[in-house]
Specification:
By secondary structure, the chain is an alpha+beta fold. The radius of gyration is 54 Å and the shape is elongated. The protein has 21 helices and 24 strands.
Length: 793
């Protein structure tokens, strides 16, 4: 018996690099095969997008434009006295304006100006609608009575004059709007009552009345909430955004979002009004305090001036004195000037001393911003005070926005301490200079006083009285002048900033229909692609020639069997002109070159697992040899699953198993195969010990006898990847084929089985790729356009 030899085994050549076109065609065919994913995906995502847009409330964005005025024209004296003689800082950075605009104080004042405390909605089929400025009724609450906060109170119209009120909550906060204080919790509340329009709904947990402003529809339900101003301020603070027109610009946009355009615009208008108003109030407050200070000083100076005037009159009445000499007038005038300078220095010294002590021992405040009327402010000190107050203002706003552990607070405190130290050093130097200047003036005054002591007594006394009168008169005139300037400036005060554009809706924030539609289309495409890619990635089956060559690069692929869509198994007989039939003829031609010199060919056909088309290929290959004139026999050596027995209906007849146990002769187990030169040997009865039978001496005798009768012996063996039966049959074969079925054979199982054969030095003569979809991979040799396939037959 001729055994399998290496001469019958041919190694495949290295794969030839192909163009990209087959890959592109494969990808196209792959998605064409899974077209239904796209068919489902696009309507699905389009529908979901429509539903999302239909059910999602539209969020609008409103904006107002403000120009921050420059501080360049501000000075520390003159007409700008109202601003604390240059000591009142105005922070203009975008960051600071953002903090100011979002501060609790500003937002709360804006909310206090609005009627947002009663929040009314209408029930809709898909979504509820905010009824601000569109409500068909007006709700008036008793602000001195407690009200349920953030609890829906439902209103169901019964007829034109009656409504049904429903309230249900497990627990809610009770709030009095008159003093804006919470009054504890309500506990569980269940309330339902039909009331007349205009009647008071009076309960322990709320008190209000309803008046209609238009006709009510019984088809529409409504509900409303009582919202505290603190709750509203907190809610709206988070919606405020401040952004510059461009880098370095003094124009800013203040924006907010919400579902009701009227409510957004109303809030932004109130916010900008309060924002501008607070700076004007600060100016006016300083003006009021300045005028009050001046009036106090005027009263004191007026009393002193009247006393000085009375002294002068009394002196002239009681003394015979006409007029001072020219010398005495010059001396008195010079002494008066020195005295006035000394007074101004004393005022300056008093202010700087007070400011220094204030910085060292008291918290920073605006109390020392009262103006210094008799001197021009020191520009350096003014700049330091301005810087310090600006930092303090930023600290106050930052404390209102964040917690005590924020590192920005520590950084800001360090800046304030450094600014304080710089200011204290500057004040100490100024006070030293003032003391030196005072000493110098006092020395001059002492010299003049000595000269004036040489004047006659009456003349000297008169000059003293006259000098005192002139000094108080000058101070009184100065105070009147400053009071007038302050009143004029107060009357002409304007806000620091200016509104360029009033609040208006600038767009829709969400849902962004255009973007959502684009994303839906993209997802509708990506999801099927992802599914197909994932499906391909997770596919562990051999699909085409590329998969096969990558797993078995050293094994020849002898044939490609196209996918057969017919119902029978004898393709060559049923459809002789089909591409499947031609593929078996091509395989037969290749196998002729592997036939031994004696002209007898024993061919074993196996596979990794069941269901891979092993019997199908064996049957049609045997038919192809028979048609070519070769006496061919198909032997069903798969004793465990006798597929040939089922196909040819020999269940009740003797077969190979009967021969192997010695109960039948070889001529008793051979049956016609349905064509000339074609014989089959069915498996026969399923034995209990298939491996033992195949390894017995009767198997060798069977092959000896069968080769004497037939030219070609094709063995339909069991799957070599499952049982050892096929391995036992290889020693009787001239060559053996390994059948792989596309989209059926598992890669790892095939690779493992093939490796075992390689290790045992019995590699397959060749591989047959069965059930290949020609539209995806082709079988490499024939075109279905040329041959008649099963559908056209």
């Amino acid at each position: 018996m001729q055994k399998h030899s290496d001469s019958n085994y041919s190694h495949s050549k290295a794969p030839v690099t192909e163009s990209t076109m087959p890959d592109i065609r494969k990808i196209f065919q792959l998605f064409k095969k899974n077209w239904y994913f796209l068919l489902i995906s696009f309507p699905l995502f389009t529908g979901l997008t429509y539903i999302y847009h239909r059910y999602t409330p539209v969020v609008y964005k409103g904006s107002v434009t403000i120009m921050l005025k420059s501080d360049e024209k501000r000075t520390v004296s003159g007409a700008e006295i109202i601003e604390g003689f240059g000591l009142s800082p105005e922070t203009k950075s975008i960051e600071n304006q953002t903090i100011i605009l979002r501060s609790k104080k500003i937002v709360k004042r804006a909310i206090d100006r609005l009627d947002f405390a009663i929040d009314i909605y209408s029930n809709g089929v898909f979504k509820d609608t905010d009824m601000y400025q569109k409500s068909p009724f007006v709700i008036t609450m008793d602000s001195s009575h407690v009200q349920l906060l953030n609890t829906p109170i439902h209103i169901e119209p019964i007829d034109e004059s009656r409504v049904k009120i429903s309230i249900k909550t497990e627990n809610a906060t009770l709030h009095t709007f008159a003093n804006e204080k919470n009054q504890g919790a309500s506990g569980a509340v269940t309330y339902e009552k039909i009331v007349k329009i205009g009647d008071w709904i009076d309960t322990p947990f709320c008190r209000f009345t309803i008046h209609t402003s238009s006709a009510l529809s019984s088809q529409v339900g409504y509900y409303f909430y009582f919202r505290s101003h603190d709750w509203l301020a907190a809610a709206y603070r988070g919606k405020i955004q401040v952004s510059p027109y461009k880098e370095g610009s003094s124009i800013i946009y203040i924006s907010s979002t919400g579902t009701n355009p009227h409510k957004i615009n109303a809030f932004l208008d109130a916010l900008t009004f309060v924002y501008l108003e607070q700076s004007l109030e600060r100016k006016n407050e300083i003006a009021k305090r300045t005028i009050a200070f001046i009036e106090t000083q005027l009263k004191q100076v007026a009393d002193t001036l009247r006393q000085a005037q009375r002294k002068m009159i009394d002196f002239k009445r009681n003394n015979v004195f006409s007029a001072p000499t020219e010398l005495s007038e010059r001396l008195a005038e010079r002494y008066f000037e020195y005295e006035k300078q000394l007074g101004l220095l004393q005022v300056s010294e008093s202010y700087y001393t007070r400011l220094s002590k204030h910085l060292e021992s008291e918290p920073l405040s605006d109390d020392y911003l009262l103006p210094i009327f008799s001197i021009e402010s020191n520009a350096f000190v003014t700049s330091l005070v301005t810087e310090l107050l600006g930092l303090h203002n930023e600290l106050s706003l930052l404390q209102a926005q964040t917690n005590t552990h924020n590192p920005l607070l520590a950084e800001m405190n360090q800046k304030i301490n450094l600014s304080k130290q710089n200011l204290l050093v500057a004040l100490h130097k100024i006070l030293k200079n003032v003391a030196l200047e005072k000493k110098k003036i006092k020395d001059q005054m002492s010299h003049l006083a000595a000269r004036m002591n040489d004047l006659p007594e009456n003349e000297r006394l008169f000059l003293d009285i006259e000098r005192d009168y002139k000094l108080n008169d000058a101070i009184y005139t100065f105070l009147l002048q400053k009071k007038s300037e302050t009143q004029i400036t107060k009357a002409s005060n304007t806000p620091d900033n200016e509104i360029l554009d009033d609040a208006s809706i600038v767009g829709v924030v969400s849902p962004n229909k255009s973007k959502n539609k684009q994303q839906a289309i993209l997802l509708a495409f990506l999801l099927p692609v992802g599914i197909v890619v994932l499906k391909e990635y997770l596919n562990n089956k051999i699909r085409d020639r590329n998969d096969l060559t990558s797993l078995a690069p050293r094994t020849t692929i002898l044939g490609y069997i196209p996918q057969y869509k017919g119902t029978g198994n004898m393709v060559i007989k049923a459809e002789p002109l089909s591409s499947t039939s031609e593929s078996f003829r091509a395989l037969r031609t290749k196998l002729k070159y592997l036939t031994p010199e004696n002209g007898k060919l024993v061919l074993t056909i196996t596979s990794t697992n069941t269901g891979e088309g092993k019997t199908f290929c064996a049957l049609n290959l045997a038919s192809a040899f028979a048609i070519s004139g070769k006496k061919t026999v198909l032997v069903g050596f798969d004793l465990r699953k006798p597929r040939l027995t089922e196909l040819f209906r020999h269940e009740n007849e003797q077969g190979l198993s009967n021969y192997l146990i010695g109960q039948a002769q070889i001529d008793e187990i051979m049956y016609p195969g349905g064509a000339d030169n074609f014989t089959i040997v069915p498996s026969g009865t399923i034995p209990p010990n298939p491996s033992e039978l195949i390894s017995g001496i009767h198997t060798q005798r069977f092959f000896t006898e069968i080769k004497e009768i037939f030219d070609v012996v094709i063995v339909d063996s069991p799957p070599i990847g499952l049982v050892a039966d096929a391995r036992l049959l290889l020693e009787y074969s001239d060559c053996h084929l390994f059948v792989v079925r596309a989209n059926k054979t598992v890669k790892e199982q095939f690779k493992h089985t093939l490796q075992n054969l390689m290790d045992d030095e019995v590699p397959p003569t060749g591989i047959v790729l069965n059930d290949l979809n020609s539209k995806i991979g082709g079988y490499g040799y024939y075109s279905e356009k040329y041959y008649t396939d099963s559908k056209k037959a």
